[in-house]
Amino acid sequence: MADLYSYRRNPKRFVKQAKTWFSSNGLLLYAIPFLAIPATIKAFATGNLPAILINAGAYAAYMLAARLLRRGLLAEISYREKRVTRAPKWPLKTVAAIIVTLTTFALAWLGAHNSFFVSIAFGGGAFLGMYLSYGFDPRAEKTIAGGHGYTTDEISNTIAAAENVILSIENANNKIRNLEFNTRIDHICDTARQILDELESNPGAIRRTRKFLLVYLEGANKVTTGYANTHLQADIVELEQNFRNVLDNIETVFKEQKEKLLEDDLFDLDVQIEVLAKQLKHEGIV
Amino acid sequence: MSQLFRRFLGLILLIATVGIATCQSLVKAETGITTTVSAKLKQ
What we know:
The structure holds two protein chains of two kinds.
Chain A lengths: L27 H4 L4 H10 L3 H33 L10 H20 L4 H19 L17 H24 L3 H23 L4 H25 L6 H27 L2 H17 L4
Helix pairs in contact in A: 2-3, 3-4, 4-5, 6-7, 6-8, 7-8, 7-9, 8-9, 8-10, 9-10
Chain B lengths: L2 H25 L5 H10 L1
């Protein structure tokens, strides 16, 4: 599963919560039921088919629960980091807790041959343990008062799309073997993230920001990706100089756009975007 | 209840229930389920 952090060079927008002392990130659930493996082997050795099915099935169920729990925890981290977002689509942590509960009950009853009520106590204890350790999934939609007519979906989709474009620029940047360009592109991505930050805290800017992101960020993505793909094949000084010129333009106007956005200077911003779009077209980038 | 204590308690509960259930299952893995069912019926 794609980890949100693995692609990020500069996760400034996100405020990670400090991990607690023995936070296992859900890995613990992979380890606790390991005795089900020797139990299955023993059942095989003694030719006990029901025990084979119970122990092997229980182990598989625990592994499924552990996987769901990990995914649920990742979804929760992503949810907590965003200011505007919907609740995770599936209650994965809750489903994992239910699977662990039922499996522990079944294992205690059919595998360990405890009485029915003792087995219920086992299941209940496991459920409580899952709840106390990991909690359940967040269900509330996070939105900002005064969304200026935009739904949570519209705002979070715009931000997610822009983040994907920034990630694409950063991936292209990783292919470029030029320290100067790497630093400048990193700086451009920083500025873009600051604009997204502003957008999250002030959804009223979405109309202006959307146009800016579509034209400019996408333009920066195309030019960076294009350069990353061609500069290793053809080492042309002219190509490098052209890219440098375009980066100059992008950096300058990006910075100006950010300031204009913060100042609510809508008219000036639109004019500058038009000029930049023409510039990119002229350079044969867009 | 502090977050740390809560997580610690949850951890203990998980290890106790899941760990003991699998451990008991390991010990009794050679016992046939039919034996268990008949024993329960006798009770």
